[in-house]
Amino acid sequence: METMENLLEYTSVQWVVVTAVLTFGVAAMAAGLVYFLSTRDRIASHYRLSSTLSAVVMVSAFLELGLLLVNWRTAFEFNGAMWVSGSSTFTNAFRYMNWSIDVPVLLTQILVVFGFTGKQFTDPWVKFVIAGLLMIWTGFIGQFYESAGIVYEGISIAPFWIWGIISTLFFFYILYLVPKVISRGNRNLSEDAAGMMNSVRNLLIVSWWLYVVAYLMPVISFTAWGVVARTIIYTVADVTSKVIYGVMLGRVARLRSEAEGYIQDPLQGQLHTVER
Ligand code: RET
User: Fold this and answer.
1) How many helices and strands, by DSSP H and E, does the chain display?
2) Which residues approach ligand 1 with their CB closer than 6 A?
3) N vs C: which end of the chain shows fewer Cβ within 10 Å?
């Protein structure tokens, strides 16, 4: 069983574009980490866990993407004309292990920003975590079969589709649950904050679908440019679903904190009043 990347050869341009895009992803996670940690105290303490969770997502993605970049750089060798498979294997499977941390955490953040407690928190939380992990792990199995049938005649690609479809069922359940939870939580939010939560919902729906497109890439285009496109799609999905999503949830947390009378630095607030 081989994944698409190892069965193709790359021009220098293709190899460099993938390297550059992966590097951008790593840098975006590092930048996000600094942002989330440095803006944490703008948020009232009971919503602050949201920033911490964003930081957790950044660290895990930074490590995973950093390793993937090293993996890409060492898996291929330049033969004077093309970058060809070398002594180690490149695999996107690492991504799935990163999602096993990030997907539950990203979904938990919604519940934290809404300030849910008790059953209101644990009920959707358990559903999010279980559905999220099953979605990822079934897809994890399926992606090992992405080249079967296409490259090896006589080997069935059926498991790629079957596991992919099972994974999609869990995905649909999440896509049903997220809007439901958000519309319930929005009842306690100001118009501004609720509007932002609706944007968070839309961003989540669009950006999560990109991972499905990346899964399907061997079927869409089993070419070196398909590999380049897959890297770009993954990176756009990562930056939107982790960094931009976190920034937007942070904004909701800040709006809620301010509405509840929270001042970031009380002393500074006083000085400001005195000056006036
Ligand atoms: C797979 C397999 C094919 C079917 C479906 C999938 C969905 C993956 C998703 C991943 C989201 C990942 C996120 C990571 C953030 O860190 C597993 C590709 C439906 C939705 C948000």
Assistant:
1) 9, 2
2) 99, 102-103, 106, 135-136, 139, 142, 164, 167-168, 171, 208, 211-212, 215, 241-242
3) C
Q: Which residues of the chain have pLDDT under 70?
A: 1, 266-276
pLDDT given for residue 154 in this prediction: 83
Q: What is the pLDDT of residue 35?
A: 98
- Quote the CA–CA distance of 23 and 43 in Å, as a whole number: 31
Sign of the dihedral through C-alpha 97, 100, 103, 109: negative
Rounded Cα–Cα distance for residues 273 and 31 (Å): 34
CATH code of the region 4-273: 1.20.1070.10
Among residues 121, 64, 116, the alpha carbon closest in space to that of 93 is found at 64
- Which pTM value belongs to this model? 0.94
Contact yes or no for 223/14 (Cβ under 8 A): no
CA distances from 208 to 17, 160, 212 (A): 23, 19, 7
Ligand 1 geometric centre to CA of 212 (Å): 6
- Sorted by where each begins, the domain ranges of the chain are 4-273
Segments of the chain assigned E as strands: 76-78, 83-85
Residue ranges in 85-117 assigned as alpha helix (H): 93-113
Residue 23 confidence (pLDDT):
98
Q: Whose CA is nearest to atom 8 of ligand 1?
A: 211
Sequence-ordered list of residues with C-beta below 8 angstroms from that of 23, at least 6 positions apart, any chain:
69
Kindly give the number of the ligand 1 atom that is closest to the alpha carbon of 61.
Answer: 16
pLDDT of amino acid 78: 97
